[in-house]
Amino acid sequence: MVMKAINERSPEIWTIGGGKGGTGKSFVLSSVGICLALQGKRVILIDADLGGANLHTFLGINKPGISLTDFFEKKVPLPDLVVDSGIKNMGLLIGAIHSLSPDGIKYTQKLKLFRHIKQLNADYVLIDLGAGAHFNTIDTFLLADKMLVVIIPEIIAIENLYFF
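and the corresponding structure tokens:
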């Protein structure tokens, strides 16, 4: 399901983050997205891990042809980058693949991205963040109506969450 129209009202935005990688953020986000989509809600998942996007892998999508890189570098409209996830009512906006660092987008680019996210034609936009407390990661986390963190019972994960 590729959703290209502009929404008349803003979608509810949820972000999921945490201080450490490998805690299950992408798994939790994709599971929540699937549950909402199966309830008939229009959902767009966004992989905002600019350093190592891999949410597409959880959905069985190999070698994505388009990504957030196209929004930043080629000026492709954000709705045109939403691909079919293979699950009814759920689209996926694939993160930048090996081309941007978490701190690699400009302030004006970030504001433009946030504005376009709020205009996506969906009931819910779920944003998967990369690990760490980079300023762009934290700004994206705070964009949300609902913010979730995932942590595992390891000292390093707990310590990293304090910095998040």
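(Above: one complete record from the training split.) The domain at 12-55+63-163 is CATH 3.40.50.300 (Rossmann fold).
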